[in-house]
Design brief:
Radius of gyration: 12 Å
Distance between the termini: 33 Å
Strand content: 5-15%
Number of strands: 2
Number of helices: 3
Helix content: 40-55%
Strand order of the largest sheet: 1-2
Structural class: mainly alpha
Length: 66
C-alpha cells in the first residue's frame, strides 16, 4: 500500500528501511523521502515504522556472518 504518494513510498519500502536500521521518521525521510513534500503521510509512515519495529524481537540482530 502506498504511504507517501508524493514520493511513491510503500509500506514495504518502510519495512525494508526498518529492517536495515531506520528507527525514526527523520531516518525514513533521509532514506526514502517520506514526508518531505506535503507532509500528509508523516503520521501513517510513523505508524508503519512503529508497527514494524514492534514486530521485531528486542534483541533481533540483522547482521550475520558470511
Amino acid at each position: 500500500m502506498y504511504i507517501c504518494i508524493c514520493n511513491s513510498v510503500t509500506d514495504r519500502a518502510i519495512h525494508k528501511a526498518a529492517d536495515n536500521g531506520a528507527s525514526s521518521l527523520l531516518e525514513l525521510r533521509k532514506e526514502l523521502g517520506v514526508a518531505s513534500r506535503c507532509g500528509q503521510c508523516a503520521c501513517a509512515a510513523q505508524e508503519v515504522l512503529d508497527q514494524r519495529n514492534s514486530d521485531l524481537p528486542q534483541d533481533f540482530d540483522l547482521s550475520y556472518a558470511v
